[in-house]
Amino acid sequence: MRLAWLGLGLLLFGRTAPGEMLFPGDGSDEPGFVPPIVGPPPPPPPAHVASGETTIPYPGPPVVPQARSEKKRPPKPPIMFTKIKSDRGLLDWAARPNDLNNLLKNLKQMINVDFASEIKAFDEISADPEKNPILYRTGHFHFQLSAAERQKLRDYLLKGGMIIFNTGMGSKPFYDSAKRELQAVFPEVPVQRLASDHPIFHSYYDLNQVQYRKGVRAAGYNGTEPWFDGVTIDCRTVAVISRWGMEIGWDPLNDDNLQGYGVEDAVKLGVNLLAYATAQRAWAKGVVHAMEFTDTDAGTASKMAIAQVIYDGEWKTRHAGLSVLLQQFNQRTDIPVRFTRKELKLSDSAIYDIPILYVTGHEDFRLSAAEITGLREYLKNGGLLFAEACDGRRAFDAAFRRELAKVLPGESLSRIGSGDQIYSMPNKVTGLAVTPALAAKLGNKSLVAPELYAVDINGHHAVIYSSLGLCGGWELSQNPYSFGYDNAGSLALGVNILFYAITQ
Predict the structure, then answer these.
(1) Mind listing the pLDDT tens digit for each residue in 31-45?
(2) What is the Cα gyration radius of the chain?
(3) Are 204 and 192 in contact (CB under 8 A)?
(4) What is the pTM of this model?
(5) Contact assessment for residue 67 and residue 88, using Cβ atoms and an 8 Å cutoff
(6) CB neighbours of 254 closer than 8 A, spacing ≥ 6?
(7) Which of 251, 319, 361, 454 is the most buried (most CB within 10 A)?
(8) CATH 3.40.50.12140 domain residues, the chain
């Protein structure tokens, strides 16, 4: 029966002979291509019988009215997932037709949520995320968006939507296309692998480690952490690419030689994706974007300036946070500031003209030899580096400490004592409220002592670092998954750091 369906499926889905291309340039002749295994079609929708009975008025009337069970259509659950179809045939986008159907059934059983899915072509999708909250595209072959489709996708994602690209059975041509298209949609932001501490892997289930099938090992990957690549805008990951197949866990194929997650972990990843996307969409709807302050005059002399460090990675996590912090600093101290900040690489000699450099991020990063040398000379010549792990992310924290050890060999970050003037001028900072996520992590402890770290050179702090998130608080919109200080605390601590920088 399975072989009969497979033969019919190959015919109906657009592929008629092994080795035949689905379309020119589909990637089926490239290394890493994995041909799809066609799954059975979705079952017909079940007939629903109402629990109550109704009387039949005709014909009759007999002495006792007849009763019957009447089929009634129950309220339709809201649409959460929209599966994107292509014009290349079902084999291109629906080789496992039951993937979303089964995932939604599991969601109902596991976490008691009831959602529906739909299928649409890209031109039928609304740019309003309320109409199609999560987009889902899966496949094995190369694909390409038009310029208009890329712009539409960009608008949709910036408005609060999310797209999930699932690499069918780990087929590399699809994975490569997804990365290329996302980079074209957001050329200013890197498409990069999400570290295991990313909230997506902890939004419902904690998935630091996952079970992979043997096929993944045969393909050359020996890790145990889940592999998602993503694009993150203003602390919200708007697009995700699963490197290995989730669909063969949702629409199960029990072949351990395939390139995908084990069934249980594939389903858990699907649950986490829904939980993350739902929380982030609600947050994005409620966020009032911080005002971007601009300079009212061309003069820059005697104004405090700050430059943000550009590095190879996601170096700009928030777009208006520094501007708001500078405005608060100016308001609190009456010291003139230059809102128009520079964005510089550490290898750029222009950093020596800036008294304060600011660096942040979520993920792992590495500095080049030229950047390490540039930062070392900057610090030794009196400059100050202000760093923070945006949202309190461990991946950035580990990377920053590692790279700083290369910049200043033999030196390490030490916690700044509570009596340091950085906690007293111009704001008296003793206890700070924290974000709900951090409070939960600390056992519902909502107030903590400020925690800053430093490396001293010639008697002053040359590096000041916060391992807890600040910039979301500067924008008055900490992410729901952020491990950081609340808005007021973030601004108070940020103002004190800037004040220390210009008075030392």
Answers:
(1) 999 999 998 887 665
(2) 27
(3) no
(4) 0.85
(5) no
(6) 263
(7) 361
(8) 8-15+23-40+75-286, 306-503
